[in-house]
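worker-03 picked up job from queue 'complexes'. Input manifest follows; two sequence lines, order preserved.
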Amino acid sequence: MPGSGRKIAEKITEGVIYVSGGATIAAVLLIFLFLLKEGLPLFKTASPWKFLTGTDWYPLSDIFEILPLIAASLLVTAGAVVIAIPLGVACAIYIAEVARPTIREILKPTVEILAGIPSVVIGFIGLVVLAPFIQKLFDLPTGVTALAGSVMLAFMAMPTIISISEDALAAVPRSYAEASFALGATHWQTIRSILVPAARSGILAAAMLGVGRAIGETMTVMMVTGNAAILPQLKNWLFLQPVRTMTATIASEMGETVQGSPHYYSLFAIGIVLFGMTFVINLIADIALQRQQRR
Amino acid sequence: MSNRKTKEKIIFFLLKLSALAVALPVLLIVYLLVTRGAGAISWEFLTQPPRDGMRAGGIMPAIVGTFYLILGTALFALPVGVLSAIYLAEYAKPGGFTRLVRLAIVNLSGVPSVVFGLFGLAVFVNVLGFGASILAGSLTLALMALPVVITSSEEALTSVPQSFREASLALGATKLQTVRRIILPNAVPGIITGLILAIGRAAGETAPILFTVAAFYLPRLPRSVFDQCMALSYHLYVIATQVPDPPERIQWGTALTLLMLVLGMSAVAAVVRTRFRRARKW
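worker-03 finished. Artifact:
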């Protein structure tokens, strides 16, 4: 029967569609499994506790303790967040509520351009423009510091924070604002007391996604934070020291390792830590977004 | 009353300042790249291999390598991405599995780029034995591009009016026929737009290709998909940090070339989108 042949072909095609539907689940699981497979062998010889809390990263002596790298990642990210969240949310409010349409039509593509600049180009600019500036400004031996990383990361996180906050603000029903105006509130009072609170889940999601981007960024931090795998010293200005993040360590050292060596395993173990952190951050962001959409 | 108004004026001024604080550096970055990079870009720069330990000559092998990677990424990301989007837009029923798929997409797009690099190294380079190669690099980048391709394709599919589906089904077409003949053709522009955006972004990526394909210096062009190649993004990293005393001109020129390529692809995507939106029949 000619009809049944077509039926079978149709069933097969639909089977392929169903399988492809699960492709992303498979991808996430496979990434996690292979990080475990290549990272966990490190702990046959080293203690996981020492790995996470020790302060010595000496790959040449087979000592792999990543506290300085975690501290660097958190430090650089915290700096970026402090700059990017207030600035990004303010910018989103400006675009969504205050700016005239012509200004909005200029600002939005500008933010899109920023989102499109490759991280290695941002890193290059940070290296040749920002780092020398920081060096001169604070009279430092070198300008490639945690601060340079924070500033550049803040800019890279900005498009995510701005566009998602702006969407959240725009999604607040217009009647909320109208009711507020009718009660005699000014535009700013309405923004502060009505619109921002109504959009808070979306803004939280925007902030979390920004954090996720910052903590996972690789090339920019590798180029501008100075590649010093030592614990930042509290006695000096925290942000004015060279540091090295987890991402930068993987990127700069994987090329020198031999497959199956402790060093190789340790870099994958760092990958597990990174994957875990970004997974949790994205989960929180996703839950916040869902909540926003239900409103 | 006027006090409230003054306060509002001040706050709105501060909001405007923060918008400027975001926008001005972007314009400054583009301005610097154009003014310092434009002088370096010449026919020779674009068509010659690097010479003198990358302190002279051009960047042709890096441009070609990046094009191969873009092509490979599109080749792998498009079919899987579109099929996955068809599943989500046309077949998925609300429930646990679909929720899981969406969660996976969100998380995949949040995986740090260097972790994709690790995965590519472990799976494509080592386990599957492709070695550091265009094949391994393209697969890694495709995996990374997948969330964008899926999301934009799904959006394109769901924006096809419901009445189109109903009309087709009423004429006795099966669900798959409806998808293939009616929905997919109408969604092509949206899918292409998303694909171009995704591979444009992939072209700018460095961390995922570090251990999967990128060659420090390879003056000849790759001969097969199992060859390594140079790439613009990695080349910029190399001449910015690894080469002693590189001429600034070449660094800025390389950075500008990469930026033009990436933003150029975004621009193409935007043009495709507006073109087809205008020509749309609904």
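worker-03 released lock.
Residues 59-279 of chain B form a domain with the MetI-like fold fold (CATH 1.10.3720.10).
The first strand of chain B starts at residue 50 and ends at 51.
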